[in-house]
Amino acid sequence: MDETSTSAADGPDAATSPFRARLAFDLDVDICVVGAGLAGLTVAREAARLGASVAVLEGRQVGWNASGHHLGTVMPGFGLPVADLIERVGLEGARELWALSKQGAEYVRATATEELIPGIGMSEGVLEVSNVDAGETLIRRLHTLAGDFATEVEGWQVDRVRSALRTGRYFHGIHYPKAFQLDGRKYVHGLAALATRMGARIFEETPVVNIDFSGIRKRIVTPSARLRATHIVLAGNIHLGAPLKRLSDTLLPVWRYAALTEPLGAALADVIAFRGSVTDSDGIDHFRIVDGDRLLWASPETTWDARPKRFGAAVQRRIATVFPQLGKVPIAEIFGGALGVTVHGMPQIGQLRKGLWVASGFGRQGLNTSAMAGQLIARSILWGDDRWRLFSPFELVWAGGTTGRIAGHFIGLWARGASSAAGALARYREGVRAKERVREARLAAANLKAGTRGPPRRRPPPGAVRPAPPAPVREAAEPRPASSQESEHISGGPM
């Protein structure tokens, strides 16, 4: 996300989005990519670098949707939790997929350098925090990530998390020191420039009207020209349009909204000491510091499109809920974009039929998985690399249409409500334990003090029957010395 650019509603930053003409003449290429987002531009760059002729058709502008409006966090993994991934494809299959996601993250790291993309603003570290006190779950996950998936991770205890994030809402955490974040808008436009430098041709304001998949050379019709290609890569996410509605319907559209605050000064550093990205384990909040003292925060989600400005107050309330010390922060910019979420949580990567490819459904892990998909598809087309088949178990599944969007909306509300309730319960239990520790400490101190005067007297519990006091015991009187007369009388007289 370019923190200093114009709002999402005003379009991409003019400084990073040179004008690109629409396709106005017929064209023949080896590969036609539909969609100039992260995945499509990665396919174009890699295929052109390997020697293919490439044309990219974009219905609007480069990176106009989710690809250009996100928090820029790059880390390995998928939208599907790692335990579910193992259950679906087995441990070995999960390891191979995870390794591909790590390669995708490293591709972004190698591309997002100041030499290739000036001003990319990369910084290190991602912290995933838990809303509940789940120490055992944390240990199991650490073991899986570090042992089975060779991922560098650190477990953070509650005290360390709260020293970095001064809030009582978070408990344990997992730190990914090799994960990173960057300026997302500069990255997508920089990727377009690199693809163009390799020889790919990008045409904006060029929607696809019709596609003829038959024959070796496929035909693509636009409003002002026709294009022929041996391979077509569909990388338009939920925006492929009427010609590919059946494919778009396999994705649940989820609009994610975020806000960038005005500069907050030293108050922000007093509250947030961690300089990387922070995401909670329930996927509700995602934030990081940018420009030294501004907060970039994503929270609300809907399954229906809306004006981003409507969600400014919601982000303000969320920030104040997690960090009440900041109060109602001033908002400088609101933006949003639509993610394509699959039913199974994994991206759609592979060949639908000979010469027809798909790269979409990246959900909330778009930076690493789109880079991975772009490499896999380009290398498969030009080198015969068939590792995309690792995604074959995750088929195209209808997302339910309008009914699915309604259900997704209410499931999201329920999940956020359940997470909030679980977090509140965890904090209540923590408070009870803290009070119990204070009581025990006071009792121990009282006992220690009483020990200097002898053992403390125990008070009987309420309602106990007090034992009757023992009857007094009279002591026998000591014999007194007898007088001389008494002695004579007793002894019977003088001898």
From TrEMBL:
<protein>
    <submittedName>
        <fullName>FAD-binding oxidoreductase</fullName>
    </submittedName>
</protein>
<dbReference type="Pfam" id="PF01266">
    <property type="entry name" value="DAO"/>
</dbReference>
<dbReference type="InterPro" id="IPR036188">
    <property type="entry name" value="FAD/NAD-bd_sf"/>
</dbReference>
<feature type="domain" description="FAD dependent oxidoreductase">
    <location>
        <begin position="30"/>
        <end position="379"/>
    </location>
</feature>
<dbReference type="InterPro" id="IPR006076">
    <property type="entry name" value="FAD-dep_OxRdtase"/>
</dbReference>
<feature type="compositionally biased region" description="Pro residues">
    <location>
        <begin position="461"/>
        <end position="472"/>
    </location>
</feature>
<feature type="region of interest" description="Disordered">
    <location>
        <begin position="445"/>
        <end position="495"/>
    </location>
</feature>
<keyword id="KW-0560">Oxidoreductase</keyword>
